[in-house]
Specification:
By secondary structure, this protein is of the alpha/beta class. It is 38% helix and 19% strand. The protein folds into 2 domains: 60 residues, Helicase, Ruva Protein, domain 3 (Orthogonal Bundle), CATH 1.10.8; 187 residues, Rossmann fold. It contains 11 helices and 9 strands. The strands form 2 sheets. A 7-stranded mixed sheet has the order 5-4-3-6-7-9-8, with helices on both faces. A two-stranded antiparallel sheet has the order 1-2. The model has no long low-confidence stretch (mean pLDDT 97).
């Protein structure tokens, strides 16, 4: 079977359980052949598919996320190693980096804090964006921090990135020009796609009956951590803007909103 034929068959198998069956099949085939998706589509559709692809399709049919199967996910300008135990980076979160880029313009933050860093997603994207910056990533998961440290090493950013086990900002006393945070914001018991709810860590998804538990903890901690002229860029879920903005305003912060590419309020920018 050629690559083109196997892709069509694989996408058909995935159609019942995936919103993006063709894309999933292409990414899995590229992984099976040890090439990029672009190279696959441009030059290798007539090649023999081989046998490894079938087992990858079976794993995806069982619900395993594509990012876990291939072991990586692109985010902003970097590629991150990911796997079980870490939240998979989403394009929506790039809105935080875009908001920070707009704020600093031709300048650069010197010190960056990423609260709930996971595999280093936001911190390492920021350090790649601003070569003069140094940063600290905090997470409550040893598993996530192991991924973050490997990602920093692989990206050549380990000399500018420190990762520390912690409970949000409880142990942080320095001040930062840029604070980044993508906290859990899903209501406990919410209906999520099976490839999210059954695979990604619950502690990175759920935040109480109204999805606001972690925002309540974070809001009063942010102002003392902001350097003069600094900002905090905080991810929010759909429909969360007013509730989270009220928490931040109650903590003495001025708040602005940025939308993601789908036009959904996705990032709150907080200033002291």
């Amino acid at each position: 079977m050629t690559v083109a034929e196997a892709l069509a068959a694989g996408a058909a198998k995935l159609a019942a359980g995936s919103d993006t069956p063709r894309l999933d099949a292409e990414l899995l085939m590229a992984h099976a052949l040890g090439t990029s998706r672009e190279e696959l589509l441009l030059r290798r559709l007539g090649d023999e598919a081989g046998s490894a692809f079938d087992s990858l399709i079976s794993r995806r049919e069982a619900g395993e996320p594509v990012a876990y199967i291939v072991g990586e996910r692109d985010f902003w300008t970097i590629t991150l190693e990911v796997g079980p135990g870490v939240l998979i980076p989403r394009p929506d979160s790039e809105t935080l980096i875009e908001a920070a880029e707009e704020h600093f313009g031709t300048g650069s933050p010197r010190r960056v804090l990423d609260l709930g860093t996971g595999p280093g997603t936001l911190l390492l994207a920021a350090l790649a964006q601003w070569p003069e910056a140094h940063g600290l990533g905090i997470d409550a998961s040893d598993t996530a921090l192991a991924y973050a440290r490997r990602n920093a090493e692989r990206l050549g950013l380990a000399g500018r990135a420190e990762f520390r086990l912690g409970d949000w900002a409880e142990s942080v006393s320095s001040v930062f020009d840029l604070i980044l945070c993508n906290p859990p914001y899903v209501e406990t018991g919410a209906d999520l796609p099976p490839d999210v709810s059954a695979w990604e860590p619950a502690e990175a998804l759920f935040a109480g009956v109204d999805g606001l538990d972690d925002y309540r903890r974070l809001a009063p901690r942010l102002c003392p951590l902001l350097a003069p002229g600094g900002i905090a860029c905080i991810e929010i879920g759909a429909g969360r803007r007013d509730a989270v903005a009220a928490l931040l305003a109650g903590a003495g912060l001025a708040v602005e909103t940025r939308k993601d590419l789908a036009g959904i309020d996705r990032c709150l920018i907080a200033k002291g």
